[in-house]
From TrEMBL:
InterPro entries: NagB/RpiA_transferase-like (IPR037171), Ribose5P_isomerase_typA_subgr (IPR020672), Ribose5P_isomerase_type_A (IPR004788)
Domain of life from the UniProt record: Bacteria
Protein name: Ribose-5-phosphate isomerase A
Leading EC class: isomerase
Gene source species: Ligilactobacillus ruminis
Catalysed reaction equations from the record: aldehydo-D-ribose 5-phosphate = D-ribulose 5-phosphate
Length: 227
């Protein structure tokens, strides 16, 4: 199986955790795409009653097209379960997310969820975080100053570009600065530093947040319980 087939495998597997009448957080990305398609099929075939809370305009568009009823995070009392992808997961179940630039809504939805499942192909697992560039969402005003500060601190920043070569805008009209770190020895310390920099809206370190990881392996999906 290639990487895409592994993503499809875990996307389709993950909807087994969705039960009738749940409010479900719907993540973002190419793996989540398969989960949302499979959820749409279950709603159609089984008459499941689900409320979806999406994490990006992209996922909202897909879910709407499939007839999945949606509410915003502020309109629901709680989210029973969120299923999302991840860019890198360490051996102690810490994660980097935001490769699809949706980290802000993804973190808001995840932190308001009773349970969080990440669905990944096996290439996303690593011993220690840092091989995937760490996304930091920043407001445009003052972002050059923040960039210079990150550079001076040796965090190897780069502004995320869009397909036209301009600066990429998130769904909230912010910029993304990616930090090319190689390895992150102390993720909690780094998270503390980043969130306290004025102009930083959110960062892609998702620490102590996941309950279950479904990994796409060549011999089938493997379910790992984080805590
Ligand atoms: C989007 C994310 C995605 O979950 C992450 O980038 C994984 O994406 P994919 O499933 O396409 O590999 O964090 O902001």
């Amino acid at each position: 199986m290639d990487q895409n087939e592994l993503k499809k495998l875990v996307g389709e597997k993950s909807v087994e955790w969705i039960k009738d009448n749940m409010t479900v957080g719907l993540g973002t990305g190419s793996t989540v795409y398969y989960m949302v398609e499979a959820l749409g099929r279950r709603i159609k075939d089984e008459g499941l009653h689900i409320t979806g809370v999406t994490t990006s305009n992209r996922t909202a568009k897909q879910a709407q097209a499939l007839g999945i009823p949606l509410k915003s995070v502020d309109e629901v009392e709680k989210i029973d379960l969120t299923i999302d992808g991840a860019d890198e997961i360490s051996a102690d179940f810490q994660g980097i997310k935001g490769g699809g630039a949706a980290l802000l809504f993804e973190k808001i939805v995840a932190t308001n969820s009773d349970k969080v499942i990440w669905i990944v192909d096996e290439s996303k697992l690593s011993q220690q975080l840092g091989s995937f560039p760490l996304p930091v969402e920043v407001i445009p005003y003052g972002s050059q100053k923040l960039f210079a500060k990150f550079e001076a601190k040796g965090l190897n920043p780069s502004f995320r570009k869009n397909d036209q070569g301009g600066l990429l805008l998130t769904d909230s009209d912010n910029y993304i600065i990616d930090l090319h770190l190689g390895s992150i020895d102390h993720p909690h310390e780094l998270a503390e530093y980043l969130i306290h920099q004025v102009g930083v809206v959110e960062h892609g370190l998702f620490l102590d947040m996941v309950n279950t990881v479904i990994v796409g392996r060549q011999n089938g999906p493997e379910v790992l319980e984080a805590r």
